[in-house]
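About this split. The held-out portion is used to measure sequence recovery: a designer receives only the structure tokens and must propose an amino acid at every position. Recovery is the fraction of positions where the proposal matches the reference. Here is one held-out target exactly as it appears in the evaluation file.
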């Protein structure tokens, strides 16, 4: 998936645990873990907004677009 979640990086910068963030954002630890482990298929803007508010960051600090390498031409 070309969108990579960098939540772990921001948590380390803020010296905050995942469980502390989950409580502050009022989201289950399980759902936040799915987001952190890059297994989420979607994220609500309201959740993203709450995470950014608590971590004092921008959405671009949490999400990064990493293009996939082009497929090799078929021979």
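Reference sequence for scoring:
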């Amino acid at each position: 998936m070309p969108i990579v979640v960098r939540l772990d990086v921001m948590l380390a910068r803020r010296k905050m645990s995942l469980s502390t963030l989950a409580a502050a954002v009022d989201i289950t630890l399980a759902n936040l873990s799915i987001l952190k482990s890059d297994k989420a298929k979607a994220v609500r803007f309201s959740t993203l907004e709450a995470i950014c508010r608590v971590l004092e960051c921008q959405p671009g600090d949490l999400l990064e677009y990493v293009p996939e390498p082009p497929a090799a031409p078929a021979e």
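Annotator remark: The domain at 3-65 is CATH 1.10.260.40 (434 Repressor (Amino-terminal Domain)).
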